[in-house]
Amino acid sequence: xxxxxxxxxxxxxxxxxxxxxxxxxxxxxxxxxxxxxxxxxxxxxxxxxxxxxxxxxxxxxxxxxxxxxxxxxxxxxxxxxxxxxxxxxxxxxxxxxxxxxxxxxxxxxxxxxxxxxxxxxxxxxxxxxxxxxxxxxxxxxxxxxxxxxxxxxxxxxxxxxxxxxxxxxxxxxxxxxxxxxxxxxxxxxxxxxxxxxxxxxxxxxxxxxxxxxxxxxxxxxxxxxxxxxxxxxxxxxxxxxxxxxxxxxxxxxxxxxxxxxxxxx
Length: 265
Description:
alpha/beta; nine-stranded parallel β-sheet; 9 strands; tryptophan synthase activity; EC 4.2.1.20; RibuloseP-bd_barrel; Tryptophan synthase alpha chain
């Protein structure tokens, strides 16, 4: 199922998507594979999988620490894709790969896209991709059926918001806070205003992320009119606590509680 198809089905049923994020290779790739299956079984509609990177500008301390641990264990893109290729045929949820632009350029855009497509990846988020260079990735990705989602920041001016909305594929990723990812007590109301601004210029689905860490937050973004709640650090943190088995159990329960909150909104 493509990302677009996923949102189409949910919209028809007046539902909001839940998109968890985890870091590949933390604590190890075997646990990541199990985590993808558990999230899929417990209410995830799509799953963002972060490729560990040494200079993650958009990531807060929790995800940075997870990426560092994964890199120290020797986690590399080829091994991540090998794991995804084994797991993806068993998943209902499409996988969205979250990676930075440098590793893509280093590997070569065409080669990178062919490799992630072969592994079963359906979507791509590149947080440091300049809008002005987005076309160089969007066009070849489209040919392979990979949807490249672009981010709108709270600081984005209206003209840029419109340009991002036009080019973003699958959905539009609305960053709810100024700054990096991370667990926060509450959500900034600027996200609600931005949602309304985006709604005025596009009918594409809008996912809200960065700072959503509790079921009440997920419920709130649904009530604001978002098409998806994207939850990262809160999952990464739970998966890293205790033994891998305890971490897996914790993310399963948390995923279920978020989905219930969204459905009851």
